[in-house]
Predict the 3D structure of the following.
Amino acid sequence: MPLPSYDCVLCGVLHLETRDHLFFHCAFAKTCWAYLCGSFTPVANVHLNVESLKRKLKVPFFMEIIIMGAWSIWKVRNDFIFNQRTPNLYRCRQLFKEEMNLVFHRAKRKQYSNMAAWLARFR
């Protein structure tokens, strides 16, 4: 699809917006992941990043965290493109918490207490 630009709108530099850049290497994405998993440092590609996050998060619901983290970054990006809403970490955090609370309500009782404790860190 032809667009006026294929550069990342979140990091403010002329960098091609690829999947790996947008979700892991963009300065904005790095800030978001630092909020969720402070010790995470992005590596070469998305598959290695998912593995790295899995090891660092050390929770059985790591995939839900990764998906909701990426979803929150995507929504902030789209808010900027389509609604001219300035990207900021506060908005990304707010979206993440809202989405994770919805996941929390659907969680299996076995994971309920672990997820509740993990989410409590972000209130």
In short: The chain has six helices and no strands. The mean pLDDT is 88.
